Amino acid sequence: MNELGFIPVTLIPLVWIVAAYLIGSISFGILLSKLFGLPDPRTVGSGNIGATNIARSGKKLPAILTLLGDALKGWLPVWLALQTDMLMWVVAAVGLAVFFGHLYPIYHKFKGGKGVATALGVMLAVSGWLALACLITWILVFAITRISSLSAIAAAALSPIYACFLLPYKDYVLMVLVMAVMLVWRHKSNIQKLMNGTESGFKKR
User: Fold this and answer.
1) Residue 4 main-chain phi, psi, to 5 deg
2) Angle of helix 88-103 relative to helix 60-83, nearest 10 degrees?
């Protein structure tokens, strides 16, 4: 038994992973759209529940709050796991669980977002430098192209390379690699549009 007195030690990692998945399943885009009286993001624009699609409504505040909420829910479980000295594989599993919770939320019939902000939150918890490198990549690509999806794809594609140099543990590098593959996969429709020249972007004001 552990210090809680009722959870067997062998089940503690499972409890953390399940809890992280449930936290990841919280869809801030849907909740904030309801709060601000906006249309359900799944029914407008790209149909994505992330901040980019909500920003297309013209309302900046709910988009910013969605971005922060999705990043925070990625950061929090991983940071808490690190504070309790969990084994590295457990921390990595917690990171993947919260990430997959965003992609496939149990509260919304497993139809979630693409996971960019949540992945950034997870990376921030394990390495501020890794998160900064990915964020700078996103900003630079977006500044040049004004296309959010291309910026996310570029940051995701480069994140495992950054991780190899910045993360000392293979468990964390593998976690970043899995997230990167899934991020690119979740953007497959955007990739097709980019190839066809039909992907929408944000006009300079």
Assistant:
1) -75, -20
2) 160
